[in-house]
Amino acid sequence: MKIVITSICPICGCLVDTKVDLEQYEAYAYGGVLAQDAFPTLSATDRETMISGMCPECQEEIFGSDDEDY
To answer: What is the chain's pLDDT, residue by residue, as a tens digit (70 residues)?
Structure first.
C-alpha cells in the first residue's frame, strides 16, 4: 500500500508530499533502516526530503542541481 508523507520545509515553509510504500516507511521510521536502503526507488532528492524535510527547490539552492551529488 502506498501512503503520502507530507513534510514542511524547514527553510522556506512550503509543503512537500512524497509517496512511499507503507512497509518501506515503517522500516525507515520504526525499524532503523537507513533512507537509502528503505527507499531504493526514490530519487536522492526525495530521500533527502524524507530525512530533512527540505523541499527540492531549497535542496537545489544548497546542494546544486545534480540530484546524485549528495
So the answer is: 999 999 999 999 999 999 999 999 999 999 999 999 999 999 999 999 999 999 999 999 999 976 554 4
Indicate the SS3 state at residue 28. helix
Every domain of the chain and the residues it spans: 2-69
How many CB atoms within 10 Å of residue 10?
A: 11
Q: Is the Cβ–Cβ distance between 18 and 52 less than 8 Å?
A: no
d(C-alpha 52, C-alpha 15), whole Å: 13
Question: Cα–Cα distances in Å, from 25 out to 20, 28, 69?
Answer: 7, 5, 24
Task: Give the β-pairing of 2-8 and 15-21.
Answer: antiparallel
